[in-house]
């Protein structure tokens, strides 16, 4: 579904990503792990064409999008949920969802507000509430739900559990597992293993913009020295 090879990325003169490889099969849930500043968000930005300069190859759904615009990549079915929750604070939950609506896509689950309310039950209870009057966790769920309204085949979720209360983290994990059951491919960036081990099949660890580990979650759990060297506790 997504094949990223030898990805390099820059912010101005600063060379941030060095030869990052990342493969995601159909229906896979992959964790992109690493401490603060390791390059996780930059990797996502590079994949969706939001970085000033990038090199390497990115093949999405059999199509080379290495030099495609963000608009074209999203239109091709790649959804991106950035770390900062970009909801429309002056619009209601329902209106925020409508903003994300795209036509159904072959080979991807088709989402409607009702289906999304089943996935995120607490959003259903506040469908007329303004985005600006929701908690951080609710806004995070709304951002994911709005991205799903575009009926993507793969989603990149940048630190979906960050700053959430434990109960909300659990709800988020259930929602992501339900997305996986629908056949979506998912990449989740996280600083530690706690959340990732609940939902992910495989992990890729970044440090200083380089891949330091790539394997299954079970393989990673058997290597505590890797976890200690590269992950937040
Ligand atoms: N706009 C920018 N301009 C210059 N350097 C940047 C910019 N954004 C990030 N960086 C640098 O790029 C490196 C990777 O940052 P990135 O945000 O990708 O890390 P991350 O793994 O996502 O961490 P975090 O958990 O903090 O989001 C860091 O050294 C950071 O300081």
TrEMBL record:
<keyword id="KW-0547">Nucleotide-binding</keyword>
<dbReference type="GO" id="GO:0015807">
    <property type="term" value="P:L-amino acid transport"/>
</dbReference>
<protein>
    <submittedName>
        <fullName>Amino acid/amide ABC transporter ATP-binding protein 2 (HAAT family)</fullName>
    </submittedName>
</protein>
<keyword id="KW-0029">Amino-acid transport</keyword>
<dbReference type="GO" id="GO:0016887">
    <property type="term" value="F:ATP hydrolysis activity"/>
</dbReference>
<dbReference type="GO" id="GO:0005524">
    <property type="term" value="F:ATP binding"/>
</dbReference>
<comment type="similarity">
    <text>Belongs to the ABC transporter superfamily.</text>
</comment>
<dbReference type="InterPro" id="IPR003439">
    <property type="entry name" value="ABC_transporter-like_ATP-bd"/>
</dbReference>
<dbReference type="InterPro" id="IPR052156">
    <property type="entry name" value="BCAA_Transport_ATP-bd_LivF"/>
</dbReference>
<keyword id="KW-0813">Transport</keyword>
<dbReference type="Pfam" id="PF00005">
    <property type="entry name" value="ABC_tran"/>
</dbReference>
<dbReference type="GO" id="GO:0015658">
    <property type="term" value="F:branched-chain amino acid transmembrane transporter activity"/>
</dbReference>
<dbReference type="InterPro" id="IPR027417">
    <property type="entry name" value="P-loop_NTPase"/>
</dbReference>
<dbReference type="InterPro" id="IPR017871">
    <property type="entry name" value="ABC_transporter-like_CS"/>
</dbReference>
<keyword id="KW-0067">ATP-binding</keyword>
<dbReference type="InterPro" id="IPR003593">
    <property type="entry name" value="AAA+_ATPase"/>
</dbReference>
<feature type="domain" description="ABC transporter">
    <location>
        <begin position="2"/>
        <end position="233"/>
    </location>
</feature>
């Amino acid at each position: 579904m997504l094949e990223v090879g030898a990805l390099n990325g820059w912010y101005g003169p600063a060379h941030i990503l060095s030869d990052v490889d990342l493969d995601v099969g159909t229906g896979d849930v992959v964790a992109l792990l690493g401490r603060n500043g390791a390059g996780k968000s930059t990797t996502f930005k590079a994949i969706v064409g939001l970085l000033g300069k990038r090199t390497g190859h990115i093949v999405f759904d059999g199509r080379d999008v290495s030099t495609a615009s963000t608009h074209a990549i999203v239109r091709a079915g790649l959804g991106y949920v950035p770390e900062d929750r970009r909801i429309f604070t002056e619009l209601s939950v329902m209106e925020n969802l409508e903003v994300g609506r795209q036509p159904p896509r072959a080979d991807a689950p088709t989402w409607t507000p009702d289906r999304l309310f089943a996935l995120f039950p607490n959003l259903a209870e506040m469908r007329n509430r303004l985005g600006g009057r929701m908690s951080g966790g609710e806004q995070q769920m709304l951002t994911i739900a709005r991205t799903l309204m575009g009926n993507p085949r793969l989603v990149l979720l940048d630190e979906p559990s960050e700053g959430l209360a434990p109960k909300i983290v659990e709800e988020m994990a259930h929602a992501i597992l339900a997305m996986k059951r629908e056949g979506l491919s998912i990449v989740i960036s996280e600083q530690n293993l706690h959340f990732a081990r609940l939902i992910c099949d495989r992990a890729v660890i970044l440090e200083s913009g380089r891949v330091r580990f790539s394997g299954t979650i079970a393989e990673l759990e058997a290597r505590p020295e890797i976890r200690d060297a590269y992950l937040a506790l």
